[in-house]
Automatic annotation (TrEMBL):
This is PAP2 superfamily protein. InterPro entries: PAP2/HPO (IPR000326), PAP2/HPO_sf (IPR036938). The chain crosses the membrane at residues 21-46, 80-98, 105-123, 143-161, 168-188, 194-212, 233-255, 267-290. SUPFAM superfamilies: Acid phosphatase/Vanadium-dependent haloperoxidase. The keyword Protease does not apply. Residues 106-209 form the Phosphatidic acid phosphatase type 2/haloperoxidase domain. It comes from Actinoplanes lutulentus. Keywords: Membrane, Transmembrane, Transmembrane helix.
Length: 307
């Protein structure tokens, strides 16, 4: 009598790790490349062309806000965005990653802050700005203030638990928006400076997420409902303000070519502010999405599960 040998059971220790798609692994790298390309495009359009400079400078010069509460908020945003405070927040963020034994996130947080701010300072000091708008102003592209604020917001999203990343991202988006608009209102920066700073931080952040996904072999995890709700709120905000910003940008560009006095400075400032809001919202949608489905670390914990 012959017996059919049963197939040997696969031991738990040899179970295959769930596979992830190639797209999921390389998408953060693609985000970094596209963000870097966006910085180059912003520089070419708004620094290297006469019309771009005129539109950008008009938006910066039109920030005559007379509402006292708005002025107070903008002033405080500038006063509290300094390197000492931001450096302390970054140290605390990296420390949170270490305490959670997520050393890759702690290292990633330090990389985002260091690389983004270093890149911003290098570009600002070395990129030429031809005088095409008659102001003879020095180069301010990209914004150091916005880079600092956005990098801090990004690292806080990165090191907080996944379920809270959308909420932290929403708070960070509001803070970065206020700082960015405040730098334009104070005539420290043009709108293009602030948007380029956001893209630089996103490029550095994409590299970090790419490194984390290469290191962690686990499958992706589903998005938490709060993160999805925040992404929806930011998506609606980005769509509305992008439409307003594009229409306003077209109007300002046409009047600069024809009748420069037809559109008021406040209209141009509002147009630039709408563009900033749209770009901040879009940037934080991407960042929350990149970080919200983070694979578990390979560090074993009691019970044979993975964190």
């Amino acid at each position: 009598m012959t017996t059919v040998a049963s197939k040997p059971a696969r031991s738990a220790g040899n179970s295959a790790v769930p596979a992830r798609s190639f797209w999921h692994t390389v998408s953060p790298l693609l985000v970094s490349v596209l963000a870097a390309g966006g910085v180059a495009a912003m520089y070419y359009v708004f620094v290297r062309t006469s019309l771009g400079q005129l539109v950008d400078t008009t938006a910066m010069s039109g920030g005559d806000v007379n509402h006292p509460q708005v002025i107070e908020v903008l002033s405080k945003a500038l006063n509290y965005t300094h390197l000492t405070l931001l450096g302390l927040v970054c140290v605390l963020a990296a420390g949170l990653g270490v305490v959670q034994r997520r050393f890759d996130l702690a290292i990633g947080a330090a990389f985002v802050v260091g690389a983004a701010n270093l890149a911003t300072q290098l570009l600002k000091s070395r990129l030429p700005r031809p005088d095409l708008d008659g102001t003879a102003m020095m180069n301010s592209f990209p914004s150091g203030h916005v880079t600092a604020a956005a990098s801090v917001a990004f690292v806080l999203v990165l090191v907080f638990p996944r379920a809270l990343r959308g909420t932290i991202g929403l708070i960070g988006a509001v803070y970065v928006t206020v700082v960015a608009v405040a730098t334009v209102w104070a005539e420290w920066h043009r709108p293009s400076d602030t948007i380029a700073a956001l893209l630089i931080v996103l490029a550095c952040g994409g590299l970090v997420v790419w490194g984390v996904r290469l290191r962690r072999r686990g499958a992706t995890r589903p998005l938490h409902l709060p993160n999805m709700l925040v992404m929806g709120i930011l998506a609606v905000t980005s769509a509305v303000t992008a439409a307003a910003g594009l229409i306003g940008l077209l109007a300002v560009a046409l009047t600069e070519r024809g009748s420069p006095e037809f559109v008021s400075g406040q209209f141009a400032f509002s147009t630039g502010s709408a563009g900033i809001v749209a770009c901040v919202a879009g940037t934080f949608i991407i960042w929350v999405r990149l970080t919200a489905d983070e694979p578990p670390s390979s560090r074993p914990v009691p019970g044979g599960k993975k964190k």
